UniProtKB/TrEMBL annotation:
Pfam families in the record: FAD_binding_3
GO molecular function, one term: FAD binding
Gene3D superfamilies: D-Amino Acid Oxidase, subunit A, domain 2, FAD/NAD(P)-binding domain
Source organism of this protein record: uncultured marine thaumarchaeote KM3_90_G11
Name of the featured protein: Dehydrogenase (Flavoprotein)-like protein
Domain annotation FAD-binding: ranges: 7-181
Classification via PANTHER family: DIGERANYLGERANYLGLYCEROPHOSPHOLIPID REDUCTASE (PTHR42685:SF18), GERANYLGERANYL DIPHOSPHATE REDUCTASE (PTHR42685)
InterPro entries registered for this protein in UniProt: FAD-bd (IPR002938), FAD/NAD-bd_sf (IPR036188), Geranylgeranyl_reductase (IPR050407)
Length: 223
């Protein structure tokens, strides 16, 4: 297959890659995004807790259908069970459906003219004079710039240690507050991080854990 000429090739079709594509394509650069999965936002790697301010600083106003919940506070549980309850109602914190959100970003990037290649894995780059040659599972690209937006998978290739292990589930329960995030600190279960409960509504919550050197799914089940 003949190599394609591009201004920029972006590897990774999640928030970083898609925002980068949105910015570059609206300035008429010829962009291709490579995403190894066949669907954007799947598997979902984020629980979507974010402030509206953080999003607007990136020029993003989330569509109503991507907002799952509004958060008004957080409860911090210490290992001894001590509780600190804080109010964050003035901070405009929301819970996003990351799958929907990423899909929305991809639609904007495509509308601006970016090409999105799903089921296409980045393999490697090499250089030929001033050009970068990007090898993917589908095709080769000759481009001026290459953007690595492959998130943690890229970091793990460079850095074997110091990476948090994480796991998450959606649970159905009635023991959390529907607009408060709970954070549990316990150095045995989640060394260096914590366990979180992010409510979606009165009955559903995203529960996750992260920590150094843990079996994250085992520890989350134990929690
Ligand atoms: C369990 C968990 C919960 C989290 N919850 C929150 C939260 O509530 N709030 C918050 O702000 N942050 C949260 N985060 C962090 C957030 O998910 C990341 O900061 C964010 O997703 C990083 O975005 P990214 O685009 O840089 O990378 P990623 O989202 O990791 O995306 C990388 C993309 O690159 C693709 N890719 C990887 N390798 C290749 C390849 N070889 N070829 C092509 N494509 C490739 C992947 O499929 C993926 O689409 C959470 C993280 C985890 C693990």
């Amino acid at each position: 297959m003949k190599p394609e000429n591009k201004d920029v090739v972006i590897a990774g079709g999640s928030i970083s890659g898609l925002l980068c594509a949105r910015e570059l394509s609206q300035n008429n650069h010829n962009i291709t995004i490579l995403e190894e999965h066949d669907k954007i936002g799947v598997p979902e790697k984020c629980d979507g807790l974010i402030s509206v301010n953080a999003l607007s600083s990136l020029g993003v106003i989330p569509n109503k259908k991507t907002i799952q919940n509004k958060i008004t506070g957080a409860r911090f549980f210490s290992p001894s069970g001590k509780l600190i309850d804080i109010d964050s109602s003035n901070l405009d914190i929301i819970v996003l459906d990351r799958k929907e959100f990423d899909n929305e970003l991809s639609e904007i990037a495509i509308r601006n003219g970016a090409q999105l290649m799903k089921s296409t894995s980045f393999v490697k780059t090499n250089h030929n004079n001033s050009e970068i040659i990007v090898h993917s599972s589908q095709n080769q690209f000759h481009c001026k710039y290459f953007v690595d937006a492959m998130g943690i998978s890229s970091l793990m290739k460079k850095q074997k240690f110091g990476i948090l292990q994480a796991a998450k589930y959606i649970i159905e329960a009635d023991w959390f507050e529907s607009n408060k995030v709970d954070l549990y600190f316990n150095q045995q279960l989640s060394p260096g991080f914590f366990t979180w409960v992010i409510p979606i509504n009165e009955n559903l919550a995203k529960v996750g854990i992260a920590g150094y050197g843990i079996n994250s799914f085992n520890n989350l089940d134990y929690f």
